[in-house]
């Protein structure tokens, strides 16, 4: 397939998990160049060398505006424009009401909300007409699982951005959509600060309530992002795609 032929893309948080699978899907669809970001340099370098010469590593933290400026400068110098911006970087951590700390709240808001805001606003001047902005939401943005209030609120904010920014960009031929996965097995689950047993219990529950009786895969989420990045979705903006238990739903 070559639905992304001649397109340049940025994927934040692409040295692991769904972001890495999405960078791969964009390249498989013929993207001319995909810029991958992440804070861990070794993982980023390994990802880029596995993906080949059309993948470019830009180490950086989405909570650091100077790192985002460096990314924008590089894309501007090397290509001059971008067609697809995928604000994927983020993390999940639980904490129940009563045990919330300043650090928990600040960390989640800084990465999952402010990181998305500045990624999009700083790259916007480079986005060509016909461009596609894709945001990483989660099904929790419209659910109420106990213990996940702050993480869920960050994803609810992102879901809201897709709708409002789609309106802000009306008339500019730039689309904004959000992809909201259910439970997808990625290294992200090992960093949530909960035990392996709790993670596997969580996976089992999610599989038991999914129509295909299994949890989702990163390549399935990536294929939805590849559709939203391509001109096949030129009529789609302000929408939320759920990818849960192996099934995509709008
Ligand atoms: P991973 O931990 O595998 O990937 C997270 C990616 O984000 C990594 O590349 C990580 O790289 C990067 N990242 C995290 N913080 C920052 C930061 N401050 N600056 C730059 N990059 C950062 O997890 P997933 O693939 O599961 O998660 C990807 C996204 O998908 C997240 O937004 C997550 O909330 C969302 N999501 C995941 C679901 C799931 O079930 N897996 C379900 C719904 C949504 P590094 O640490 O090197 O910076």
What are the main properties of this structure?
250 residues; alpha/beta; 8-stranded mixed sheet; 42% helix; binds NADPH dihydro-nicotinamide-adenine-dinucleotide phosphate
What's the arrangement of strands in the largest beta sheet? 3-2-1-4-5-6-7-8
In total, how many beta strands? 8
Q: Average pLDDT across residues? A: 96
Helix/strand/pairing class, anyone? alpha/beta
Cα end-to-end separation: 23 Å
What does this structure look like?
There is one protein chain. α1 (17-28) packs across α7, α3 packs parallel to α4 and α4 (102-123) packs parallel to α5 (149-168). A hairpin with a 2-residue loop joins β7 and β8 (247-249). 42% of the residues lie in helices and 18% in strands. The chain is globular, with a radius of gyration of 17 Å. The chain has helices spanning 17-28, 41-51, 65-78, 102-123, 149-168, 196-208, 218-229; strands spanning 8-11, 33-38, 55-59, 82-87, 127-136, 175-181, 240-244, 247-249. By secondary structure, it is α/β, with parallel strands linked by helices.
Question: Can I get a quick summary?
Answer:
This protein has helices at residues 17-28, 41-51, 65-78, 102-123, 149-168, 196-208, 218-229; strands at residues 8-11, 33-38, 55-59, 82-87, 127-136, 175-181, 240-244, 247-249.
List the helices and strands and how they pair.
Layout: E1 8-11, H1 17-28, E2 33-38, H2 41-51, E3 55-59, H3 65-78, E4 82-87, H4 102-123, E5 127-136, H5 149-168, E6 175-181, H6 196-208, H7 218-229, E7 240-244, E8 247-249
Parallel strand pairs: 1-2, 1-4, 2-3, 4-5, 5-6, 6-7
Antiparallel strand pairs: 7-8
This protein binds NADPH dihydro-nicotinamide-adenine-dinucleotide phosphate.
């Amino acid at each position: 397939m070559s639905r992304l032929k001649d397109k340049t893309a940025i994927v934040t948080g692409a040295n692991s998990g769904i972001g890495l699978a999405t960078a791969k899907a964009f390249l498989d669809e013929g993207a001319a160049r995909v810029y991958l970001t992440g804070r861990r340099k070794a993982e980023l370098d390994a990802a880029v060398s596995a993906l080949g010469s059309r993948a470019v590593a830009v180490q950086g933290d989405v909570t650091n505006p100077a790192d985002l400026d460096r990314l924008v400068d590089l894309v501007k110098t090397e290509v001059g424009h971008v067609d697809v911006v995928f604000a994927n970087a983020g993390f999940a951590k639980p904490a129940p009401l009563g045990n919330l700390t300043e650090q928990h709240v600040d960390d989640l808001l800084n990465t999952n909300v402010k990181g998305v805001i500045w990624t999009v606003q700083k790259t916007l001047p480079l986005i060509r007409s016909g461009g596609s902005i894709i945001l990483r939401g989660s099904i929790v943005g419209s659910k109420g699982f106990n213990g996940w209030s702050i993480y869920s609120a960050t994803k609810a904010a992102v879901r809201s951005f897709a709708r409002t920014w789609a309106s802000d960009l009306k008339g500019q031929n730039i689309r904004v959509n959000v992809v909201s996965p259910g439970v997808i097995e990625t290294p992200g689950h090992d960093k949530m600060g909960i035990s392996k047993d709790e993670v596997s219990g969580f996976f089992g529950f999610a599989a038991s309530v999914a129509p295909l009786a299994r949890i989702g895969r990163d390549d399935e989420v990536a294929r939805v992002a590849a559709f939203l990045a391509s001109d096949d979705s030129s009529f789609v903006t302000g929408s939320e795609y759920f990818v849960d238990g192996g099934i995509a739903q709008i």
